């Protein structure tokens, strides 16, 4: 799967250095797999959830919320937001 844009992961992990290992592991798994649909995604990431037209990943022992838009047909995953659990709970990401 092609990921747009990895820069958001890097910026977040620079701000929160203890998250870099978990984000890098997620990135490598997504990058190395062709994922045809949400059911297959849930086999790889059982904690992934659909929220409207977005997919939310719980990463790093539920410390990180990675909000993405996935286009399975074209194999593109767009990183919309990388948030701490507390930032996610404020739900400001739903407005953007």
What does this structure look like?
There is one protein chain. 35% of the residues lie in helices and 30% in strands. The chain is built from four helices and five strands; from the N terminus they run E-H-H-H-E-E-E-E-H. A five-stranded mixed beta sheet has the order 1-5-4-3-2. The protein has 96 residues and is α+β, with helices and mostly antiparallel strands. The protein has a single domain, classed as YaeB-like fold (2-Layer Sandwich), CATH 3.30.2310.20. The chain is globular and about 30 Å long.
The portion of residues forming beta strands comes to 25-35%
The CATH level-2 architecture is identified as: 2-Layer Sandwich
CATH-defined superfamily: RelE-like
Mean pLDDT: 91
CATH topology: YaeB-like fold
Largest sheet: 5 strands, mixed
Low-confidence stretches: none
Overall geometry: globular
* H/I helix tally: 4
| CA radius of gyration | 12 Å
Number of domains: 1
Overall helicity? 25-40%
Largest sheet, spatial ordering of strands: 1-5-4-3-2
